[in-house]
Amino acid sequence: MNLPIAFEEKMRSLLHEEYADYEKCFDEARHYGLRVNTNKITVEEFLKIAPWKLEPIPWIHNGFYYDGDSVQPAKHPYYFAGLYYLQEPSAMTPADRLPVDPGDKVLDVCAAPGGKATELGAKLQGKGVLIANDISSSRAKGLLKNLELFGIGNMMVLSEEPGKLTEYFRGYFDKILIDAPCSGEGMFRKDKKMVKAWEEHGPEFFSKIQRSIITQAASMLKTGGMLLYSTCTFDPSENEQTIEYLLSEYPEFEICSIRPYEGFAEGMPETGDSGNQELKKTVRIFPHRMQGEGHYLALLKKGHCEENHAADADRAGKTAGRKKKLPEELDAFFQDVDWELDASRLDIHGERVYYMPEGLPDLKGVRFLRSGLLLGELKKNRFEPSQALAMCLKRKDYARVLDLPLEDERVIKYLKGDTLDLEDMVSAKEKGWYLVCVDGYPLGFGKLLGQTLKNKYLPGWRWMGSGQ
Fold this sequence. Notes:
Layout: H1 5-15, H2 19-24, E1 32-36, H3 43-49, E2 55-56, E3 63-66, H4 77-80, E4 84-86, H5 93-97, E5 105-108, H6 115-124, E6 129-133, H7 137-149, E7 155-158, H8 162-169, E8 173-179, H9 193-200, H10 203-219, E9 221-231, H11 240-249, E10 253-256, E11 265-266, E12 283-285, E13 295-302, H12 310-320, H13 328-333, E14 346-349, E15 352-355, E16 368-371, E17 373-379, E18 382-385, H14 387-392, E19 401-404, H15 410-416, E20 420-421, E21 432-438, E22 441-449, E23 452-455
Parallel strand pairs: 5-6, 5-8, 6-7, 8-9, 19-21
Antiparallel strand pairs: 1-3, 1-4, 2-3, 7-16, 9-13, 10-13, 11-12, 12-13, 14-15, 15-17, 17-18, 20-23, 21-22, 22-23
């Protein structure tokens, strides 16, 4: 592969005697990765039903390699059930190494298409809130689909400049992840088009953007909160020097150790301006040392005090929730759902009913694609549940379930939007909304009448094509 001369020279100066090994890795095949959605299934349970050979990614507890040249996991009903996400192995590392706990308030600043956000959301286990933001509204649509597919309801999907968010979220978040836009040098092997993009917009272009994003994000973190910064590039100006810049602007931040793996390389203080040896705690991932593409990670904690508006934000969220009663149609539907709905968290816009995360600040003026979990729509004398609600439910949560085995041809028919004949599964008198599952994992809703299921699977999500 022909690499730009300036890039080659830089890599030689970074890697010294390892450069030859790095160069050789361009002749090796790329690695395909799959990450299990622990919000829906344990790793052990998934391995029992996985239809392909999987090899563990040794530094990611729920990550696995698969043979992307011979199998297509995106063309399988388990993918449509949200049981896993397909992601390059090194790219799994940032969300894995940010220590998120259930109940945290978490921000993913540059979240599309959702590889990191889906893992952050899964770690929350339905508690706290995930704010997933991407400046591109078209990319944010894909992000929303992936979060809904994963069954993450305690979230908001925003499409704003990070600087705009600082007006609303100063000192609000417990954890922030920045997978920053970058020059993409770590992806040259995986995607040859990245070389041309690098020649048009290189490290100098991106380092300015990164410095702006990381300092804006810093102001949104609580004292004691943690921030993980990552890129998929090698250039020091986008990596160690960006961290140095943050520390010069916000000296209360300290660099934290990242849970180790034998293939990780230390950060390189010698490439910075300050000589700060703490930069060795940051991590570089090189493709000749590990089975994954190039990455950089830095984990930081916000130390001593700065003016903190988190309590104000919490109060704003609580005072905004007036005492409400469940609409009659919604209440009737939820008689079949084993959930405790808090009516004060309902937000009804026209026909649409949303279930909001707790403790949000006043977000008037923010551009968002989704605020909370879309439960469904209030029609005349009835409630129609949403696709997002189906994906948030567990089989045990809903009273009326149609559980199809994987090998049943009606699984694919359902995913294609077809009407299903269910004479062998239900009696003629049964009717109403049913949750359709594959091997116990929800796919969506359908409406039963006379042993026929009218398909309510979301049209934009339907199975396209023929084979598995």
